[in-house]
Amino acid sequence: MSTDNHGEKLNRIKINSHLQRIASFNVQGLNSTTKQKLLADDFTEKNLLALLVQETKIQGEEELKLMSSKNINLVLYNSGMKDKSLKGVGIIVREGLKLKFDSICERICLGELDTGKGMKICLLCVYAPTEEETRKNPGKTESFYNKLSTVINTISKRNILIVGGDFNARIKLDESEKDSYKEIVGKYALNTINENGKLLVELCKIHNLKITNTFFRHKKSQQTTWTSTVKPSNARINSYRFQIDYIAVRKNEGVKIYDSRSYNIMKTNSDHKPINSSS
To answer: What is the C-alpha to C-alpha distance for residues 110 and 151, in angstroms, rounded to an integer?
Structure first.
């Protein structure tokens, strides 16, 4: 299903000045109005253009109005399950910004922003199955990646593609694999690759994507994106913090990424951290 936001007409998107204002965040539920307002505050305080959100846990296809404490209006375009408040993905933009939205399923959605230069910024929001789900039912995860690959194939090469989400994937490669994937996975990937990681890396190889937040050196707190609630006894703090959320872009589409990392300062409560790639 496709919908257009026909609110107040805004200027077309300027590529270089706005890509740095696109982020991705697993919010772990947006059912409460209190949490919606906190997220709206985070969005406006960071002056974002768009926020890709995972685990909204909101049912169905919906356009939900959000308002910050400073009375700035936003719209959440949601793609969720029809009969359960589980999973769910979406894209948040300011009210009045024209977004063409495609609800693919409760794990994948696509939004398009017009640059006015004969190309679009295509925002692909993703929430992949967990590693445990993959172990129990590998066919289900393969089906998810096949669907994701099919969606990417529909996006014209002349458009800018940004893929962001919670991939539940660890992608640090061993020495024998690093040379083969050095343009896909950077040397700052954390945590030894798992099955989900192998599927993600293969997807990126097929579609010529690079995983931006593995290419920049930062302290561990700005590389990790998720904190496990299961903490080993006497463990160092970083031993239960993981890098499983990513933003990927096409390697050859002319967009220079200058930085990509996670952020700690957010009002919205989640055991994930938002990630942002700056151009």
So the answer is: 9
Under a CB-based contact definition with an 8 Å cutoff, are residues 210 and 248 in contact? yes
Bridge partner list, 160: 121
Return the residue matching tokens 């539940």: 168
Which tokens belong to 73?
């209006």
Q: For the whole prediction, is pTM greater than 0.85?
A: yes
Instruction: Write out the DSSP string of 41-93.
Output: HHHHHTT-SEEEEE-----SEEEEEEE-TT--EEEEEEE--SS-SS--EEEEE
Q: Residue 212 has which token pair?
A: 């931006």
Burial 92-112 (b: 16+ CB within 10 A, else e): bbbbebbbbbbbbbbbbbbbb
Dihedral sign for Cα atoms in the order 29, 33, 38, 39 = positive
CB neighbourhood size of 47 (10 A): 8
Interval 192-243: pLDDT, tens: 899 999 999 999 999 999 999 999 999 999 999 998 877 666 555 555 789 9
